[in-house]
Amino acid sequence: MIILSLFLMVSGLLIINTIYAYQTKHIDSNFFHTLWYYIKLIPFFLSASMMIGYGVKHLTKVVGNLTFSLIVSKGMEILVCVVIGYMFFKEFPNWRTAIGIIVILIGFWILKGK
User: Fold this and answer.
1) Helices 66-89 and 95-113, interaxial angle, to 10°?
2) HEC secondary structure over the chain
3) pLDDT tens digit string along 36-72?
4) Helix pair angle (2-26, 42-63), 10° resolution
5) pLDDT digits (tens, 9 = 90+) for 100-109
6) Which residue in 44, 53, 59, 98 has the most C-beta neighbors within 10 A?
């Protein structure tokens, strides 16, 4: 069940972050072009949102803690953003990226402790 939860969350996060990265790189900033792009992608947003929601729900059932499940989801989102940044923009993570991720994860850990 944990593997299914993590798979659902990663899949949903990949879909959403890919949509935004593709828009940034390939879609004209004209309002109507952007609107038409999002109208065409409503089914993908819906499925991605459901994947993330069910992933968090099932992980919460397994571990018994919603805060932990949301922290796992945010950590996965950060890693997905790094991967998508590399795929679309050829941005290779450097030491500053690693420090940023560590600071964010420490913040989540501190939040979890309270």
Assistant:
1) 170
2) CHHHHHHHHHHHHHHHHHHHHHHHHHCCCCHHHHHHHHHHCHHHHHHHHHHHHHHHHHHHHHHCCHHHHHHHHHHHHHHHHHHHHHHHHCCCCCHHHHHHHHHHHHHHHHHHHC
3) 999 999 999 999 999 999 999 999 999 888 888 888 8
4) 150
5) 888 877 877 7
6) 59
Token pair, residue 110, equals: 């501190």
Can you tell me which residue has the tokens 């109507």?
32
What is the distance between the alpha carbons of residues 30 and 52, in angstroms, rounded to a whole number?
A: 30
